[in-house]
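Model: Ready when you are.
Researcher: Fold this.
Model:
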Amino acid sequence: MRTLLLNVAVFATATTAVAAATPNLAHYQLDTSSFAAATSDATTSSTVGNVAVDTPLGLVIGTNEDPRFANSNGNNNVDAFLGLQFGIIPSRFSKSRTSTTQDDYTYQPGVRQANGSTGAPYIDATNFGPYCYQAIDNMPFYQDQEQSEDCLYLNIWRPKGTNPQSELSVMVLIGNGFNVQGAPQPPSWGHNLAREENVMVISINYRLGVFGFMATDDEGSNGMNGVDDQSTY
């Protein structure tokens, strides 16, 4: 796993209050060694989620109230951070690169507070990113999902209430499907593992079919882009 500004290790660590004031995002980009994440109620910054993590990129807001991840009793008990971009595909069939700058992310404006201040800008991590292009025959989970060539996104589930003493193990799921199909569909969501086994679960996308495994010249260039995408993570 390479060292990214969006370093997934921060999602397994510290909990503190989220400042309502707008942070200096340049600080987060420079201070890539500071992985003590901040998690808390995110209502001071966002209307879309309720749990926040302070990363080298700034504030990332997810949710622990997504009904898709509730158990049979209706309890959630997991924090979910979805659709976080980890790689950039500069052009079709080209090798991906790691997302390394704030320009690679879209920040939502913070919520205006009653006292006139503005909450911190944040990355919205409450919905899955687009799936990589693939045939969806006999795959009902994908019918209503966006597909795109820009599809290098990861998802994180962790037990609700994770704190600095949790010392979670991390499980990374790279979906199967014989390199032509696959994405974080319901059977491979990580919420059950996170909730029942007390681990942090990460799932990633990678390019499939011709986009990920078609050689573009006689030397075989780009024929392993789908594997390279996994290395980019």
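Researcher: Now this one.
Model:
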Amino acid sequence: MPIAEVKCMVINDLDRPDETLLNNLESISPNDVGHHLHFGFPCADISYMETGSSGPLSVVGPALTVRIPPEDSTMVHKATEVAQEGDIIVVDMQGHTEHAPWGEITTRGAMSSGASGAVIDGSITDSHDISELNFPIFARGKSARTTRLHGRGGDINVPIQVGGTVVDPGDIVLMNEDGILFVPPEEAEAAIQYGQEAIEEESKVLSQIEAGKSIADISTANNLIEQMESE
């Protein structure tokens, strides 16, 4: 029986967003637009691995997407070479979580290319070593079992799925301690507007709370309760 041909796609060119746009997005967080956008948020199973520097986490950058077959991290190694300054490497393991494709070595490789973070729809290893490098990573968990280089295929800079969310190469990644938001560049200005409006509204609410007003009154929860009680 003939051996099936292994195919892969490596696209080295990535249409990266304008630097001004990225700087403007740094003024908001995924939380600020969480009430407005219904898409772009991966499932909560993909969480912050506490590997970045101490203090508040705020990272914004273009997604360099990677799709790999289970147990094979060949394309992850290549992605650390393709990455450029500010990129966030986003890996789709196609549902596999037992073997970690990311550890200290790939972190150091990504950092040497200027990458600013990683999102792994799967597991990571060497978490303690990575935390000493202050490199922020989101993943589903940790594992002592690791992938190997089998050369079974995979792709770089193609559309992928991460935590139930479609991510295209060059989509803008917003990361903080609570989660991630993937924003297509053409929707970035709207996201900035939503975020700024949310920040202004929150400031008003905080002022009302400090003045002694009830949160239930501010949010109209009391009005809704009255309606439910009258029905």
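Researcher: Key takeaway?
Model: The chain has one domain: 8-194.
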